[in-house]
């Protein structure tokens, strides 16, 4: 079959699905069109179940000539907003054409300087009728002039979207998510719009209505932010005295805005804009928002015990973030503007795909205003510096001030002015050793140097000028080199450095390039530093390994291999470095573990049978393993708690155990949080948390009546933990916007010994934290003496665990020390050589390695 071009209507639909992805995106774009037409009042109605929406405004309206067949209304790449301006949203002329290709679109408008009202109806990109003038039924309903856009059956031509829309209409959670997203989008538009405007949002299916009205244009930015967020139910109060104005400026970019002193449990109250264009934080992955979050996470902002720790030095919070309550996120609005752009709007596409110099400057300014706000209000942020001036290193530098040291005025001023001038990505430190904490010095070797391989055979070319082979390859190994390796004297070859020299050389020598080609400078040094310093929120970067001797070096001992030579000793001592790579520890081997002793009242030394990684069928060899006694008992305690969390009912299904409280715990919740608790009460009921939420317009008193026995006592004595558990979970579910995972009541675990493994999917994070905390508090601690019987029982309990190799917090609970082989190494001492000779050889080996 020949290749043919798609029909034009199919091409239009494909392009439209890229420009339009959701109902909220349609309403957002229609709101932008209304604001561009200088509207001061806008009425919005949505019906998510049917895919309908309507937007009516009192703007200037559309000229009657645009409704004629030769007009540009509804045509692709026709716009009245060209050339682009920083005071307008649209300039591409593709939205209405894309919307007409995916829905039944009706546009009715009356221009402010005309007497007639006109209408046009489009479906699948085709004009069904033009009414000039429009009929009485089609005229504007709320205003004397302006525009009304009605969208019917959005995505009706796409069966998969129609099916998804029908399924979503049956879920209250999905509708609430769409409504919350629409409110947040509208609030972001109104905060960044400089003029006074009123928007009324109405959900025809859910009977919800919200009125948003911005202050006059002369109002301060703090007043605008506090008013809009309070009306959008994103803040508890419109008191602008709790909002602090901030600003920072460079020669090209300026950042102005405000932060709130009151933390909130969600990130929905955070807004950024490039001029009047809101910046969306999709899935929390925007680099601009993350720059601000990084500064706030490393501060005391949101701490419940803030006043009790004022004596701590700056930057102390790196290991104390778990003390933050559910209210830990800042509320802010920051406006980013550029100078010298010729009146054009700085878009996100240009920001991320264009010159990284502007993005670097914006990130530094956001860092500066965040640090300045936290510093001026005594939230003890970590000190920040310019990324471009950092020396290159393999790990990001943690700029934490030592305990008890206060910052000087010069340092603070430098921190707050760190982005006042444009930065250069090509800057280099004055010395490559500036970022080194210390330099290790090795012992100079007195062994005379010998010619290297390249010097010995540099003149013996392998290939001739015409490509002929001049000599056989791989025969350039020197005879004297072979003789040195084959020596059976038992002494270390003289050409090999000592172990200490190897470690120092590996640590201090720079890596040599594998090719003679010169290394090219990266395209953007700043971008490389940014990627290097980025902290993965999901998987932590593995720590750099400790430099060690090469355990792979083994020296042939010839006919004296049965003696305890230096090669035997070195192989035994250095096998511990490679045991983690060559041996596999299996949890079944714990049942056969032989306890040797408790070590320092902290660890348990055992001997375990292990197998080679590549050869599973080989005979098991013994390995010395050190276990953390606290981590081992902590793991056993945790799995006992997890196994006892559920019980089987008469039908064989698993249900969470719950115990009624003698005195119910009363918790005061805001109206929005109480509504979320009512919405997700089935989710908490599946995990044994029973509560009642009375209907109220203001603050609601939630009564917790029943809790799981494993967390009941802790929640009863420390009610704050229960409050944080409930608030963290409801806001997590709400921000994620997805239905909570349904409790199946049956385990999907393949093991009958641990059915709880398949039951804890979707468990509230706070419940797991309480279980981990209880297992840690009740476990065996360091310096607790254990007898041999106690150690044996503890190892046997560990062998019955589902995950014996990690503690309750996910850290390793054991470490291999030494590979003993199939038989004990001391047997290698037996031989014909006298004991005195073996002792002398052992002392000689120690002297060469010291």
TrEMBL record:
InterPro entries: HATPase_C_sf (IPR036890), MutL/Mlh/Pms-like (IPR038973), MutL_C (IPR014790), MutL_C_dimsub (IPR042120), MutL_C_regsub (IPR042121), MutL_C_sf (IPR037198). One of its GO terms (cellular component) is mismatch repair complex. Residues 403-430 have a biased composition (Polar residues). Residues 595-786 form the MutL C-terminal dimerisation domain. Residues 383-436 are annotated as: Disordered. One of its GO terms (biological process) is mismatch repair. It holds the Pfam family HATPase_c_3. This is MutL C-terminal dimerisation domain-containing protein. It comes from Sarocladium strictum (Black bundle disease fungus).
């Amino acid at each position: 079959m020949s290749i043919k071009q798609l029909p034009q209507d199919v091409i239009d639909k494909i392009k439209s699905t890229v420009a339009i992805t959701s109902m909220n995106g349609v309403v957002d774009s229609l709101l932008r069109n209304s604001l561009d037409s200088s509207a001061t009042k806008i009425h919005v109605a949505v019906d998510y179940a049917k895919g309908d929406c309507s937007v009516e405004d009192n703007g200037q309206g559309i000229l009657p000539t645009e409704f004629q067949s030769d007009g540009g209304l509804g045509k692709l790449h026709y716009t009245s907003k060209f050339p682009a301006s920083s005071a307008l949203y649209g300039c591409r002329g593709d939205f209405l054409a894309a919307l007409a290709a995916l829905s039944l679109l009706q546009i009715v408008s009356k221009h402010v300087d005309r007497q007639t009202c006109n209408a046009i109806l489009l479906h699948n990109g085709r004009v069904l009728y033009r009414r000039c003038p429009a009929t009485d039924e089609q005229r504007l309903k709320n205003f004397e002039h302006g525009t009304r856009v009605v969208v019917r059956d959005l995505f009706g031509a796409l069966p998969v979207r129609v099916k998804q829309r029908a399924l979503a209409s049956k879920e209250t959670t999905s509708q609430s998510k769409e409504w919350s997203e629409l409110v947040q989008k509208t609030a972001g538009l109104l905060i960044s719009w400089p003029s006074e405007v009123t928007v009324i949002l109405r959900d025809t299916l859910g009977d919800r209505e919200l009125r948003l009205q911005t202050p006059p244009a002369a109002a301060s930015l703090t007043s605008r932010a506090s008013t809009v967020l309070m009306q959008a139910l994103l803040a508890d109060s419109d008191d602008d005295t709790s909002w602090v104005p901030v600003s920072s400026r460079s020669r090209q970019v300026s950042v102005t805005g405000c932060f709130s002193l009151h933390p909130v449990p969600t990130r929905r109250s955070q807004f950024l804009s490039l001029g009047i264009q809101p910046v969306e934080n999709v899935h929390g992955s925007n680099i601009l928002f993350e720059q601000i979050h990084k500064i706030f996470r490393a501060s005391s902002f949101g701490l419940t015990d803030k006043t009790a720790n004022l004596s701590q030095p700056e930057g102390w919070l790196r290991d104390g973030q778990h003390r933050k309550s559910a209210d830990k996120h800042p509320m802010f609005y920051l406006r980013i503007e550029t100078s010298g752009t010729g009146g054009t709007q700085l878009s996100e596409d240009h920001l991320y795909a264009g010159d990284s110099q502007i993005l670097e400057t914006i990130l530094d300014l956001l860092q500066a205003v965040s640090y300045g706000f936290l510093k001026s209000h005594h939230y003890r942020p970590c000190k920040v510096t310019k990324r471009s001036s950092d020396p290159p290193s393999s790990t990001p530098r943690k700029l934490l001030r030592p305990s008890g040291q206060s910052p000087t005025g010069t340092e603070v001023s430098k921190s707050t002015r760190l982005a006042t001038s444009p930065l250069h990505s090509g800057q280099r430190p004055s010395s490559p050793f500036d970022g080194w904490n210390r330099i290790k010095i090795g012992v100079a070797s007195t062994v005379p140097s010998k010619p290297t391989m390249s010097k010995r055979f540099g003149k013996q070319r392998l290939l001739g000028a015409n490509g002929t082979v001049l000599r056989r390859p791989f025969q350039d190994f020197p005879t004297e080199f072979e003789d040195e390796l084959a020596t059976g004297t038992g002494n270390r070859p003289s050409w090999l450095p000592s172990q200490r020299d190897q470690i120092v050389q590996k640590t201090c020598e720079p890596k040599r390039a594998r090719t003679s080609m010169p290394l090219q400078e990266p395209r953007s040094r700043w971008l490389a530093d940014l990627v290097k310093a980025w902290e993965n929120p999901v998987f932590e970067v593995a720590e750099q390994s400790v430099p060690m001797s090469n355990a792979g070096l083994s020296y042939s001992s010839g006919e004296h291999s049965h003696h305890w030579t230096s090669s035997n000793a070195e192989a035994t001592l250095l096998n511990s470095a490679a045991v983690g790579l060559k041996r596999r520890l299996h949890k079944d081997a714990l049942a056969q573990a032989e306890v040797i002793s408790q070590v320092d009242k902290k660890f348990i030394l055992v001997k375990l049978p292990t197998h080679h990684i590549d050869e599973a069928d080989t005979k098991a060899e013994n390995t010395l393993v050190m276990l953390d006694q606290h981590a081992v008992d902590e793991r056993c305690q945790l799995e006992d708690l997890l196994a006892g969390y559920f019980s089987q009912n008469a039908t064989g299904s698993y249900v969470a155990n719950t115990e009624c409280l003698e005195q119910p715990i009363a918790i005061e919740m805001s109206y929005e949080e109480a509504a979320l608790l009512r919405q997700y009460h089935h989710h908490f009921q599946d995990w044994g948390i029973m509560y009642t939420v009375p209907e109220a317009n203001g603050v609601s008193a939630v009564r917790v009546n029943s809790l799981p026995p494993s967390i009941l006592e802790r929640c009863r004595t420390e009610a704050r933990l229960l409050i944080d558990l409930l608030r963290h979970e409801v806001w997590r579910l709400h921000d994620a916007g997805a239905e909570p995972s349904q409790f199946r009541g049956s385990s999907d675990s393949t093991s009958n010994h641990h059915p709880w493994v398949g039951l804890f999917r979707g468990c509230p994070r706070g419940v797991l934290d309480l279980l981990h905390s209880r297992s840690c508090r009740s476990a065996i601690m360091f310096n607790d003496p254990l007898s041999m019987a106690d150690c044996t029982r503890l190892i046997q309990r560990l062998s019955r665990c589902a995950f014996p190799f990690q503690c309750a917090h996910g850290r390793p609970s054991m470490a291999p020390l030494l590979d003993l082989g199939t038989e004990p190494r001391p047997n290698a001492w037996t031989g014909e050589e006298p004991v005195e000779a073996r002792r002398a050889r052992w002392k000689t080996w120690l002297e060469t390695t010291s």
